[in-house]
Amino acid sequence: MAEIRKGADVQDGLKTVAVKFVKSSRVRDDRIVREAFARELAALQALEHPNIVKIIDFDPHHDPPYMVLEWLENDFSGWLATTPPRDWGEFYERIGRPLLDALLYALTKGIVHRDFKPGNILFDDQGAPKITDFGIAKFLATPPAPGAPTLAQYKSEPYAPFDEGNAQAARDAYSFAVLALRCLSGTDFTAHEHVGKALEGFAGPAEVRDVLRRALAANPADRFRDVVELQTALDAVRTRERAAEGSTLACYVSALPQAVAKLCERLDQSDERRGRALLARDVCESLVLFFWRERETGRKVPHQFLGRTAQFKLHLGIDSRLGDHLVVLSAWPDESVEGEAHSEYGFRPPFPFAFDRVPAGVDGVAMVRWLVDALEQHEIDDADARRDRKGEELLKEWSNTLRFRQTVEDGRYAPIPYSSYRVEGNRIYFAVTSLPDTVVIEQPRIVRRDQRTLASGVVDEFTPSMVALWVERGVSDSLPDQGQIVFDNRASRIALDRQKGALDAVRYGRSVRPALRDVILDPSRARPPNVGGDLKWEQSDFDDDKKTAVKMALAAVDVLVVQGPPGTGKTRFITELVVQLLRQSPECKVLLTSQTHVALDNALERLHVLEPSARILRVAQRDDDRVSPKIRDLTIDHVATRWREDVAKASEAFLSAIAKELGVNRQDIAMGMSAGRLRVESAEFDRVKARLAECERRIDELERGVKVAQAGHVADGYHETTEALEEVRDEVRNLLEQRKTVGARRRDAARRLAAIGELGRQLAEATTVDLAEWERGLLAGSDADRKVHALIRLAEEWQLRFSSSREFYAAMVATSSVVAGTCLGFARVPGILSAEFDVCIVDEASKATATELLVPLSRAKRWILVGDTQQLPPFVEDLLEDPKLLDEYGLDRESFQTTLLDRFVASLPPACVASLTTQHRMVRPIGNLISTCFYDGKLKSVREDDGRTLAAALPSPVTWFTTAKLPGRHETASNGSIKNLAEARFIGQWLRRLNFIAKAASRQLRVAVITGYAGQCIELERALAHLQKDVTALSLEWNTVDAFQGREADICVYSVTRSNDRGQIGFLRDARRMNVALSRGRQGLVIVGDHVFCRSARSPNPLRNVLEYIDAHPADCSIEEAHYEGR
């Protein structure tokens, strides 16, 4: 079924590896072989254990498919022939317990090996056993795919039982017992009777014989249920054995005379006998061991150890002549303050050290050998334990951030008062007089009146005087003229619940790729990609850095991060990657997510052009105008409608063929199908209508309950009743939408039926009961009529039930090549959180919190994160205002501001991080500034124009207009924020000048005016709002830096705002925010501010670096004195 070839890993210093090929002559026609390869690949991807063979690389789509494994030179037969265990105790400590540990670990991941035998055990150079070949493994938590072959019948006699009933997990325990007897009996087994004879002749402890007898019991009900029970029983026996051995079991230690003499010299002790006694006492009472390691490389030195006692550090080795005890080679006082804490991580054997010669008859060699093996395992376990502790701390911190967010969002978001509103499609534009700093894009908000929710949705856009709410539910044309837009904690709870679910899936190994947990907690464990050769590129002028990144992404085993600074073409990279993934494997399933609709749709638009045959599913509501019109037909509701129509057409064609075959009139078929469809839609309409009436009665009851609770001042009752009331009202809103949709379908069905003839017109007016009665009459006709109309009824029942069920949406997801949605929004599709994807691509990963990213990542086997750690992280300032509350949850600023992208970039192997470095957006002078000041000069700008066509208004592509000599240049406070009147006034006048130059050049320019402060944004709006109608050559927009991230303009004007005598620069010290601010302009960058203040303000101060760059590049940049017109 497979062949193993010896190979060399070019990515790892030509290290020897094993390449396991599925035999190409069989792979295309043998489903068993394909299934076995898929199972082994899935198992080895999920399992990482020191006693399970390690997978290094794989390609299931290669011809023939292959996987690359660590090379293990020694097989079981060779090990048994050269170093056979002398008794049960040696067998169990050397290989029995390690192998049981591995089988138990696999079971915790839901995997039973089912083929545990000598042929599937190999040994590494240190003699550690490794389990191989998971080809017939059973995945307990994952049902087999429909039509997948079963492999339960494949057994290796006598290592699998004759009869195992339904207890699949018990097979590994049975196989282990047979293997143990094989090792200790010295004979090979070929039949089950050989196992029974070996058990009767077992010379080990009687208690062990009893355990093995139970594992091999003839009746499956009498056996151990799994390896957990078997290991528990054997460990209990081993513990009792050691307790019985008592003080006769010890590891012996001696000391070189020169080591004792040197120690006495260091202790200023003239009597070496006392020094030796002091050393002996300390060794016997408190010695713990570590492996001795080279100082420079950290490599273990064979047969040497570091010892720590209460007072000393020791360098020990194994006696070179007999190998039956340890020898102190040197010793010195331990004066380190961390000595006691460090000793906690050392190995303390379960028996004492004896500072003496090895007594006659004592097997010191075996003891030393056991000590080395145990120390090896201890270091592995300790490293795992420390990593697990650190990982659990991180997972706990993430869990606390979600709990903290819930607490904050339940009561700390201020309402937004509005004075008027206008409705445009699904958006409501509210005029506001003040805007809380806590407002961010995609924040859930609702409008209420008398405890009734009239409209709910998310913030889609905002300025200091306007908030746009994209309405997801509610009636948007019946709002009060004035009111408040309050925070919607119901939507927030749904989002947080999705994140909690994803976090639990990662924590408890329930994600599609259980190894996701290990990679997240310790990114250094990610395996590097094995990059392939040249590809046929689908996009012209595709930069070399993008080509390299695509190749790395295609070969990624675990995770790849792609750093994409501004203007480097992240969208083009993602598009090309998806095309190549689908070309490489047409069955590949891709989950594409982002934090914003714009980024998502830009990629989908390109993809739809390059790969029009790709089955793309865009997760969004039908009328969501945030979705690009070019891909609206790809939204899930549109796709669902086409599915239903296609199925209806296929049903009609099938039924017409059956009718023709049976001699049934074609018009009768059309009549029956149309009447059946109308009956189904009418029945559904009646159901929705009845449920609405029931909900309305429930609302009346709950509203009375609210009044009673208010009158009685019963706080708990009031809150519980209002929550229940809101839930029912939510259901009513959903039912109203359903009634609208079903009503439209019912009218369409009636229209089609009425078009058939007079009888059709009569039936179109009939009730649901009458339609059902008419159908029953048809079923009373001839056999042919009954058969055809029974099929008609079945088809219509499918339309009613399946097409509105979770399974229907799950089927749509399952047949799509690319499913795309926002990080949390994609999860709204029923059943999608049970779907599995081969690759998850996350755009704008720097904008998402760690737990937000876990929602899509937990559903995929491989992950590609695209983002920029030098851009702004998720907005969390509103969460950091209460230090006491933060402390209560054990959190700090870093808990919120360190993203998963930051963790990956900091700790992934370098081969798992790619960078896009060719910048196309900004003209070269701007691009070079951004590259030097924020990316260590790594960006290459390739735009050929230099942005000098507006020189009369913009002396250089990068121009700093300094306000240092303007009167009133200093900042002033503004409702908790900051504003600068001088800058706002100058910007207004300069825009008039720019408009004059642009009109003269017959150019239309998009100009963005941005600032870091809400107060200055309000001031800019006052200064610029009246300009809009005058500057006809300019399309103006003003906003904060945070709100403008991810967007661009022809000219970007940045208002510094800060200028004071204290040298305080505020959050302008954040280099990431400054990077976003200065990289928005394609052709021109204008900075307006007091350059003298910015040069001298306290560090950290990224504007100082910007000024230094401008000074050093006078050909591209300039500092001009700002002045008011007429002065």
TrEMBL record:
Residues 678-745 form a coiled coil. SUPFAM superfamilies: P-loop containing nucleoside triphosphate hydrolases (SSF52540), Protein kinase-like (PK-like) (SSF56112). The keyword Kinase applies. It comes from the Bacteria. PROSITE patterns: PROTEIN_KINASE_DOM, PROTEIN_KINASE_ST. Keywords: ATP-binding, Coiled coil, Helicase, Hydrolase, Kinase, Nucleotide-binding, Serine/threonine-protein kinase, Transferase. InterPro entries: Coronavir_polyprotein_1ab, DNA2/NAM7-like_C, DNA2/NAM7_AAA_11, Kinase-like_dom_sf, P-loop_NTPase, Prot_kinase_dom, Ser/Thr_kinase_AS, SF1_C_Upf1. Residues 1-237 form the Protein kinase domain. It holds the Pfam family AAA_11. GO terms for molecular function: 5'-3' DNA helicase activity; ATP binding; hydrolase activity; protein serine/threonine kinase activity. Belongs to the DNA2/NAM7 helicase family. This is Serine/threonine protein kinase.
